[in-house]
Amino acid sequence: MPTGFRFAHLSDPHLPLPSGWPAGLRALAGKRSLGLLSWRRKRQAIHRPEILAALMADVAAHAPDHVAVTGDLTNIALPDEFEQARSWLAQAGPPNRVTVVPGNHDATVAVLWESGLGRWQPWMSGDAPAEGFPFVRVRGPVAFVGVSTAVPSPPLLAIGSVGARQAARLEAILAELDRRGLFRVVLMHHPPLRIGRSERKALTDRRRVQDVLARAGAELVLHGHHHRDHIASLPGPGNPIPLFGVASASAAPSGRADPARWIQFTVERRGDGAWRLSAQVRGYDAGGFRTEARYAMVCGHHDVAARP
């Protein structure tokens, strides 16, 4: 029998544009038109629904206690896309078993809450009513803290921002969850550090978030956005904080980005009171998913290297 609390992390599913969606010229003005062009020229060949379906079947076969999705369910933030994504979330699991935070594609342009992100509210709200971002969901020994980095940005940019108000709330929340002795998992779309040299896709206030994490701490930070596997750490008040990014959940092997992957994490409390975190990376290969690497950490230290 599996022990510990197990949860899956996946990101950037980029669901196909709905068939027959009624988008006129006005709806496709500005940044949406560029996104549509990108989808038709290259992205629809990369993000394949059959690969996403295979990934979700693999997740279901592993029967995690919870599923965390770190954004970019849509492509150009059309109302029909948000409704389609709501249906996909319902298939992924009930709101108490699935948590989602938004990504930059989900904020391609500003969309009314009721016709946009508000349709995901059952999967994107905390245990406390009207909590907003960051929200907190406690499941077993784990506290999932959902942070929004999704803000509309000018054409050709895919930046994100947390903002001063959300960052202040995040620090207070992390400190309270630490007092409660919970394993704190921060969910966000953009990573709180720069990956690569370009600022075009970066979190603009990542240093503010780094400062919050350095003061308040967390046991794990999960992100998506770059469509590549990524493992790093950030300074915490004591031990380093592990940070995992994951490739797009729907990506076909293309040579430009990593093929589809998801990660299953297991959290256990050791006899000495410390946390043990293990990770199993499942990747797409030759029509199916297989375990590509394993990691194990104790109290934030990388004690066991990747094993194929």
UniProtKB/TrEMBL annotation:
Belongs to the cyclic nucleotide phosphodiesterase class-III family. The keyword Metal-binding applies. Residues 5-228 form the Calcineurin-like phosphoesterase domain. Keywords: Hydrolase, Iron, Metal-binding. SUPFAM superfamilies: Metallo-dependent phosphatases. The lineage of its organism: Bacteria, Pseudomonadati, Pseudomonadota, Alphaproteobacteria, Rhodospirillales. The keyword Hydrolase applies. This is Metallophosphoesterase. It comes from Azospirillum endophyticum.
